[in-house]
Design goal:
This protein is α+β, with helices and mostly antiparallel strands. It has one domain: Alpha-Beta Complex (paralog of FGE (formylglycine-generating enzyme)), CATH 3.90.1580.10. The strands form three sheets. Strands 1-4-10-5 form a four-stranded antiparallel sheet. A four-stranded mixed sheet has the order 8-7-6-9, covered by helices on one side. A two-stranded antiparallel sheet has the order 2-3. The longest helix has 17 residues. The radius of gyration is 20 Å and the shape is globular. The N and C termini lie far apart (46 Å). The N terminus is likely disordered.
């Protein structure tokens, strides 16, 4: 009888663990205190694009918790029951996910009603956390804090293997680029609110939106298209071209201007934004102020992932 009781209790414990909401995964967060910083092109940075200017003071008026690491493939698998990543590894960041899919992940966490609301960071929150009190183009020695084209050996790496920034966050400037919550307008910094900016309103058109000098293409420092086409370095159909789901070529070098759907600023006049460098980006694209906005919310490539912000739900 005792043996059967122990077995029953063990089975019940495993059952409870299996029913634990995904939001209780081993997802660590760092609390970021309110403060202010200079957002955009760092003083003396000669590699900035126009959309990183003007440098402007931003106030973050509320504390927030942001993922200590990028979302891993293990965490994604537990919530989504799939793993779309091109470079498989339990502790590597999940990648090859669209912004729409990242939002679905967050919606599933929010459906657990565990007392938190989960979301992507705003662009201002992301840069504030990435800078971690620093003012230069990088938040530390790039080789110490980031996996990028100069040291990644052409692949992602398990999260947390480089040094953290001064606020204890890992891989903010490398490994994979990260979706943020805002939409894009090239001239947004000219009239951004001083406190808690969240990007232009949906449908509000900005100036022509493209990243600037592309890493690939005739004007890019790498020259020529990436392996596998512009849809991603590791194969898969490109978003443009005869085999791509959108059909036809992008309308700018390297496909930076949004392509044939929605014109230069994407569907509805805008594109989503990614921040941070990645395993395949040159150092100049891993600067904390660098912004990416090409292709749209269905972009699915092996150098794009995300991290999570959570906030307590008021009762």
């Amino acid at each position: 009888m005792t043996r059967f009781l122990v077995a029953a209790l063990t089975l019940a414990a495993y059952s409870l663990l299996a029913q634990s909401p995904p939001s209780r995964l081993a997802m660590e967060f760092v609390k970021i205190a309110p403060g202010e910083f200079m957002m955009g092109c760092s003083t003396g940075d000669i590699d900035c694009n126009d959309d990183e200017r003007p440098q402007h003071r931003v106030q973050i008026t509320k504390s927030f918790e942001i993922g200590k690491y990028e979302v891993t493939q293990t965490q994604w698998q537990a919530v989504m029951d799939s793993n779309p990543s091109t470079m498989k590894g339990a502790d590597r960041p999940v990648e090859t996910v669209t912004k729409i899919e990242a939002q679905d992940f967050l919606n599933r966490l929010n459906a657990q009603n565990d007392g938190y609301r989960y979301r992507l960071p705003t662009e201002a929150e992301w840069e504030y956390a990435a800078r971690a009190g620093t003012a230069g183009p990088y938040a530390g020695s790039l080789n110490d804090i980031a996996w990028y084209a100069g040291n990644s050996e052409d692949e992602t790496h398990p999260v947390g293997k480089k040094k953290p920034n001064a606020w204890g966050l890992y891989d903010m400037e490398g490994n994979v680029r990260e979706w943020v919550e805002d939409l894009y307008a090239r001239n947004y910094y000219n009239n951004s609110p001083a406190a808690d900016p969240t990007g232009p309103a949906p449908g509000q058109r900005g100036e022509r939106g493209f990243r600037g000098v592309p890493p690939f293409g005739p004007d890019g420092p790498r020259g020529g298209p990436p392996p596998g086409g512009f849809g991603g370095r590791r194969g898969g159909p490109p978003p443009f071209g005869p085999d791509g789901p959108r059909g036809g070529p992008p309308d700018g070098p390297g496909g930076r201007r949004g392509g044939p759907r929605g014109g230069p600023d994407g569907p509805g006049g805008q594109l989503p934004i990614m921040r941070g460098g990645a395993w395949d980006t040159l150092a100049i694209f891993a600067r904390v102020s660098a912004r990416y906005n090409y292709y749209g919310p269905t972009l699915r490539v092996s150098d794009v992932g995300f991290r999570v912000v959570r906030e307590t739900v008021a009762h």
